Amino acid sequence: xxxxNGKPLVPSNIETLKPYVAGKTIAEVxxxxxxxxxxxxxxxxxxxxxxxxxxxxxxxAFQEIQDYPDPVARKLRAAIAERNNVKPDNxxxxxxxxxxxxxxxxxxxxxxxxxxxxxxxxxxxxxQIGVRGVHLKRIPMTSGYRYDVKAIANAIDENTxxxxxxxxxxxxxxxxxxDEFEWFMQKVxxxxxxxxxxxxxxxxxxxxxxxxxxxxxYDNIIVLRTFSKAYGLAGFRVGYAIAHEELIKNMxxxxxxxxxxxxxxxxxxxxxxxxxxxxxxxxxVEQSKERLYNFFDKHNxxxxxxxxxxxxxxxxxxxxxxxxxxxxxxKGVILRRINAFGLPNCIRITVGLPEEMDHFEQSFLExxxxx
Length: 371
Ligand SMILES: Cc1ncc(COP(=O)(O)O)c(C=O)c1O
Description:
The chain has 371 residues and is an alpha/beta fold. The chain folds into 2 domains: 12-49 and 276-368, Aspartate Aminotransferase, domain 1, CATH 3.90.1150; 53-272, Type I PLP-dependent aspartate aminotransferase-like (Major domain) (Aspartate Aminotransferase, domain 2, 3-Layer(aba) Sandwich). Helix content is 40%, strand content 16%. It has helices spanning 12-15, 26-33, 53-62, 74-83, 96-108, 123-131, 149-155, 178-187, 201-204, 245-254, 262-272, 275-298, 318-330, 354-368; strands spanning 39-40, 91-94, 114-118, 135-139, 160-166, 193-197, 221-226, 239-242, 302-304, 310-314, 333-334, 336-338, 343-350. It has a 7-stranded mixed sheet with strand order 2-8-7-6-5-3-4, with helices on both faces. The chain has a 4-stranded antiparallel sheet with strand order 9-10-13-12. The protein has a two-stranded parallel ribbon with strand order 1-11. Strand 9 and strand 10 form a beta hairpin. Helix 4 runs parallel beside helix 11, helix 5 (96-108) runs parallel beside helix 6 and helix 5 crosses helix 10 (245-254).
């Protein structure tokens, strides 16, 4: 769209930006295909729902809904700080970790500076970096669909400001190990921010060689977490960053003043204290993952083992991935093609409740055998 004088109204980085395309909603699929039942296994949500304590907390917060939210989410920030042995000044809350990523992009880049990440990782990072017009180096993954930390370290140049690592990674479910992380941190200059996106931390935390980025004393590490996954609050939009207070102080300047919402803050606080629900959520994911691995082994389907709440299925071609996803959708099983994440022949399956896994398996047998 150009003006008469030839000037573009929309900057080229936005004009050419590929936006984030979310998975289909249950309502859309119900309307389009009218399947008897629907299993939404596309967006890495918690199929168990959320803590039953959330309802009472939002009812209470609703009493003050006419008031603006606490801009720094004091109560929630204090709870997060206490549990993670940091100060409240080290914590920033925002509307989901996607918003935290947007804040990072707004806060830290000067002209000409670049960011580095893997080729096949959380597409939300690609989008927010693109919005900011920052040059992004996407480094191919290793043959096992893992972050290639050596290649990333080699790609750092004098203009690199940020390295983004989703650990565990979405969509692959793979992770960088303690040894890899420690090696990497030795290599990274201190003026390069290392963003460790731990959206799936709750599922990964007990894996023996998983590096808990918060346990490392580097001022340039920024850890991201979210209430959207294991806590089951994706609809509320609450995520956070933990980092050095100087970094957080400056990120506070670029965040939208009143995010996250008052209801989101109340819901997250209630969910954060419900350890039983969290345990149950993690157990459901573990059981359904094992079940899916066995199912895939039995049917000779290639997949990648995961320490998050999804499993990546690998098909020989992009055409087969498109076909399989569409046929499953018509049966009411919503899966996620991950072409936008850089893997056109792969499909991400969020593991769900036993009845949803039944639905997946039955539909798979009808659809896959016919290919
Ligand atoms: C690695 C990663 N980071 C961030 C997000 C965004 O989560 P939120 O709902 O907190 O914005 C996701 C969601 O899929 C994710 O997989």
